[in-house]
Amino acid sequence: MDDEELQRIYTWVDEVPLTRPKRNIARDFADGVLTAEIVHHYFPRLVEIHNYPAANSYAQKMYNWSTLNTKVFKKMGWQLRQEELDAIVNCQPLAVEKMLRQVQTRLAKFGQRKPDGAVEGEAGLQQHRGSVPVGEYSRVMPRSALAAQPRRLPGQPEAAAASLAQMGLGGSGVQELLAEKDHNIQELRETIDILEIKIQKLEQLVRLKDSKIATLQGKLQQYEV
User: Cα 154 to chain center, whole Å?
Assistant: First the structure.
């Protein structure tokens, strides 16, 4: 997928009102909830949103996608393959974008077959493919797109540009990567703090149990005497 095609996907998604803040498209769409919301936006009767709870575990994410695949996509005349689902759930680069391209195309075809059941139908989809206001995903490309679409900075030496291209970095990609790493570090620190608190509580429980065992042993010795 080239830059122009990615930008069309991002601007199309930005035009759909979603219930989740837009941060990283690969993670945001990993559990299938936002994809269900997009389909529901165009065909409300086709998707029951309550069937798609937010998920963090692989099993629950895959359950959401399996439900979407069998109850919604199948009615539209297509289904995602298992390897595609795995790639989306595991946040592989461009997996979500490729899926969204299929969803956009299939929604347009489904709208032609059932124009009365759509909110916007084919006309709305065609409008979103054209010139639309820039939204959040389209304003800042996610890391997955940056990794797949490296750019050369003006004045970069050939060797440096090649090195950055191999790493999937260039231009604003460096800042994007650093910001995401800072966010990941902060999340890890919070996790460590939580684990340390749990360890302290477990140590307290161990000491309490040791104390009870010592008391019981003392009573047992008294009975033996």
Answer: 32
Which amino acid, one-letter code, is at 8?
R
Amino acid identity, position 139: R
**Is-contact 53 166, C-beta < 8 A?**
no
Length of the chain: 225
Q: What is the pLDDT of residues 185-216, one digit of tens each?
A: 877 787 787 888 888 888 888 888 888 888 88
- pTM score: 0.55
**3 state DSSP class of 150:** coil
Closest by CA position to 25, among listed 17, 16, 34: 34
Helices 95-113 & 82-89, crossing angle to 10 degrees?
Answer: 130
Cα separation, 26 vs 203, in Å, equals 39
Both tokens assigned to 41: 């936006």
Q: Which two tokens stand for residue 44?
A: 């409300």
* Per-residue CA distances from 164 to 147, 149, 176 (Å): 10, 11, 14
